[in-house]
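Weekly structure sync, notes
Attendees: PL (lead), two postdocs, one rotation student
Agenda item 3: pending single-chain targets
PL asked that the sequence for the first pending target be pasted directly into the notes so everyone works from the same version. It is reproduced below exactly as submitted, 127 residues in total.
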Amino acid sequence: QITANKQIVPIIHDISPTPDKSMSLTGVSFTDDLHCFFGPIPSPNTKFVSSTSILVEIPMITLTEMLEIRRLASNMAMNSDKRAQLLSCTSSHSVFEMDNSGFVHMPILLVRSNKIVFRTGFYHRFK
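Predicted structure, written out during the meeting:
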């Protein structure tokens, strides 16, 4: 098991979409106090299934939120030297990017109830 600051680090191995606008995360070291975020946006529902499985509801992002995210992503693309300064609203862990097709890639983060944020290396695409 990998630890950080004496905390067991949850690791995602796979993400599978479900038919109900949710997704199933499989991995290791999941606990019942984990919450899933998409960049700065929390999942409406994170359901602990087991230490190797979590079900996550994908949040609906309002048009206003998406326009603001796209504006920030566009600024980051045009100002690569200031990229590190243009982070999302809540955390330096939640930097996002926009691709050439207009999709915004939001990092999937796992957050414990003690506010420790774990980067997962996975992203979700929003349009």
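Discussion points:
- The two ends are 36 Å apart (CA to CA).
- The chain has one helix and eleven strands.
Action: rotation student to compare against the earlier draft before next sync.
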